Amino acid sequence: DLWSVKDGMIVGSTHGRDPLTKNRFLSTADSYSDFVLRLKVKIENGNSGVQFRSEQHPDQVVKGYQADVAMETYFGMLYEEGKRGIMPYWKELSEDEKKAIFNAAKLDDWNEYVITCKGDRIKMVLNGYTTLDIPDPDGAKKGVIALQMHVWKEPMRVYFKDIEIKEIEKIVNLKRLNPLNVIK
Question: pTM for the whole thing?
Fold first, then answer.
């Protein structure tokens, strides 16, 4: 009852219903580990996010990494829903660095996120601005991708489109033994 598809977009809306009492998610059935995820998002009021390498739990609960989408403060931040919360790297940034990340967002327009995960490394780019590029050896290495509707005091709406995921192949170079070169 929160999600619909309109004109090629996934639309999440709380208009015309009681406010949410918990965050809600629309999740992939498959899990992904190393990938490049591209999508566009636009928000009207409120808070949302793009979960990745996350765990699906009962009752539409998702826990894990989240590229934040918010009208206030945290657009462009990496958050860990239901786990560590605000990640340690964020606490180490200056107020000017945090402001630059938020200023990369277009609050009344479409925003392009490019999220790259490979091994321990996570990189997020918002509208061409790298908001983080960090190793996180303690984080999940595989999980679902999900779109979030966050608890909010007023009706909100969020739009997602042009969602693409490209899995990164693990390339292993093996030197092949040629039986003709075996020493006799």
Answer: 0.89
